[in-house]
Amino acid sequence: MNNALWLLVAANIAFVGTHFAMSHALRAPMVGALGEKGFSLAYTAVSFATLAWVYFAFIAAPPADLPGSGAAGWTAATIITWLAMILLAGSFIGNPALPTPMAEAQARAEPGGVFKVTRHPMMWAIGLWAASHIILFWSTRTLITALAMGVLALVGAKMQDAKKQTLMGAAWAEWERKTSYWPRLGRLLSVGAVPLLAGTALWLAGSWAHLWRAGIPAGVWRWIG
After folding, report:
1. I need a labelling partner for 19 at 20 to 30 A (CA). Which of 11, 140, 145, 152 fits?
2. CA quadruple 94, 97, 101, 103: dihedral, nearest 10
3. How many helices, marked H, and strands, marked E, lie in the chain?
4. Whose CA is closest to 188, among 110, 125, 109?
5. Cα 155 from Cα 157, distance rounded (Å)
6. Given this model, what pLDDT does residue 219 score?
7. pTM greater than 0.85 (yes/no)
8. pLDDT for 11-31, tens place per residue?
9. 224: nearest Cα among 200, 210, 209, 208
10. DSSP result, 128-166
């Protein structure tokens, strides 16, 4: 790999590593030293700084140095991304992993919507998005960044389970018994109209914007644009 790709690897390691560290091992000492507000500011600043590094390292790396996976790859990526957007759209509705006063009650409720599929719909949305870009085999820079984001999401989901067990105790244990870490994608069509419609709208808008932002037609627009 050339220097630009090694810099991209370093940037992704920094982004993922600081997220894991500040969300888990360093959280308590940082909160003790900075307070909750100070910790939130520091977390946000580090996250934006390392994400900016990823962005600039990504655009500096070679854009299309792999042969690609052809029409079959684009078809698979299009379907996978649609599924990811459905999970993402539904992840904001009744999610006990989000920091809300209703989290414990939501964890004790019967899973509905995308939580019939997985208790980590937002994380799996990112993981599926990452998988769709790996499948395309378009560039080394995309493989590096997609792999990093997939690890952040899916390892992060497991780490989130451990953290929530500590913070929420029996309520999270009950939520874990009723839900699955691994997505049961066969249940996606039973999640309800709101996630399906909102997710489809996100998928269409995001894949349309892909041409404007990346210069590459994606999703259904690759065939009908």
Report:
1. 140
2. 60
3. 9, 0
4. 125
5. 5
6. 87
7. yes
8. 999 999 999 999 888 999 999
9. 208
10. HHHHHHHHHT--HHHHHHHHHHHHHHHHHHHHHHHHHHH
Tell whether the torsion through CA atoms of 130, 78, 5 and 43 is positive or negative: negative
Q: Do 86 and 50 touch, CB atoms closer than 8 A?
A: no
- Through-space distance between the first and last CA atoms of the chain, rounded to whole angstroms: 35
Tokens of 180: 């699955």
Residues 82 and 199: beta-carbon distance below 8 Å:
yes
Closest listed residue to residue 108, CA positions, set 169, 49, 60, 58: 169
**Residue 13 tokens, joined:** 């390691």
In this prediction, the residues of the chain whose per-residue pLDDT falls under 70 are 225
CA distance 115 to 186: 13
C-beta of residue 170 within 8 angstroms of C-beta of residue 105: no
Q: Of 193, 191, 195, which is closest to residue 90 (Cα–Cα)?
A: 195
Q: 2 burial class (0-12, 13-18, 19+ CB within 10 angstroms)?
A: exposed
